[in-house]
From TrEMBL:
GO terms for biological process: tRNA modification. Residues 7-135 form the tRNAHis guanylyltransferase catalytic domain. It comes from Dichomitus squalens. Belongs to the tRNA(His) guanylyltransferase family. This is tRNA(His) guanylyltransferase.
Length: 283
């Protein structure tokens, strides 16, 4: 069917495919969250409620987009890794980027009051987003190591900075001056000797950031012929249900394999995390 005489303008819309067979990492970052955190009195250096809200929004994104195999969050940012062979929206960059970023943003706003119930949202927060393609598993691992190392560096700095200001009575200018040029071991030492804070005992959430990963959980349930096994909680995705065990007449064992999205605050720089989850970097 012929279009109107105006239809030619479509030709200006150019395709924007992302290279196939590469790892996509989409990172969102809060726009001007320095101001947002001040205006809404976020706790310093870390506001656990605000971080939990970020985790909630990231989980909503992962629930919607099954091709995301891993997410890592710290401060006002979250990175999402898509499986290498993803064909989501035919790998159209703008479609993927805008849909994920807007879902994250709307979830952040939608769920704000669940986490910051005594702090009404004063204005509309927004997030920027980018997609970067990585050619190999080595670079993907280095990417996540980079973000987690950044979490540690920032948290150590901010923990000492705010201890100097809030407990040590220094101005922010003085605190920055004290910290200038210090190395990690000196910061640890200052935190302990001046404020009695053992950095390694701070919450893992603050030191390691948030890791969201899909895990498969198998559960065996006894069923009686003719009766269904007890249903699983509806909040979980049920990916597979198989029967197993000896073919007895009265009772049948069913193994249900569910995929859940697990939150942890674990190390993702070493090999252990990745070796235990080879599916993350598989095709
Ligand atoms: N007090 C407090 N501030 C936080 C927390 N998480 C994030 N922030 C603030 O958010 C900022 C995030 O850093 P950036 O993303 O570099 O800064 P930004 O103001 O968002 O700037 P753009 O991303 O460039 O728009 C931090 O510097 C803090 O000011 C928190 O848990 N507590
Ligand atoms: Mg930001």
């Amino acid at each position: 069917m012929a279009g109107s005489k105006f239809a030619y303008v479509r030709n200006f819309e150019l395709p924007d495919p992302l290279l196939p067979g590469t790892f996509m990492i989409l990172r969102i970052d809060g726009h001007a969250f320095h101001r947002l955190s001040e205006e809404h009195n976020f706790a310093k250096p870390n506001d656990e409620r605000a971080l939990q809200l970020m985790d909630h929004a990231a989980r909503d994104v992962m629930t919607e987009f099954k091709d995301i195999v891993l997410a890592f969050g710290e401060s006002d940012e979250y990175s999402f890794l898509f499986r290498k062979s993803s064909t989501l929206y035919n790998r159209r960059e703008a479609k993927i980027l805008t849909t994920v970023t807007s879902l994250f943003t709307s979830s952040y706003v939608f769920n704000w009051s669940k986490y910051l119930s005594d702090t009404p949202l004063k204005y509309c927060p927004s997030f920027d987003g980018r997609i970067v393609l990585y050619p190999s598993t080595t670079v993907v691992r280095d990417y996540f190591s980079w973000r987690q190392a950044d979490t540690h560096i920032n948290n150590l700095y901010n923990t000492l900075f705010w201890a100097l200001v809030l407990k040590g009575g220094q101005t922010t200018t003085q605190a920055h001056a004290v910290l200038r040029g210090t190395v990690s071991s000196q910061k640890h030492e200052m935190l302990f000797s001046r404020f009695g804070i053992n950095y390694n005992e701070l919450a893992a959430r603050f030191r390691k950031g948030s890791v969201l990963v899909r895990e498969e959980v198998s559960t065996e349930t006894e069923g009686v012929d003719g009766l269904e096994a007890t249903p699983l909680p509806v909040s979980e995705e049920v990916s597979e249900v198989v029967s197993s065990g000896a073919p007895r007449k009265a009772s049948k064992k069913k193994v249900r394999v569910r995929t859940t999205i697990e939150l942890c605050h674990c190390d993702i720089i070493g090999d252990e995390f990745w070796n235990a989850r080879p599916n993350i970097l598989a095709d």
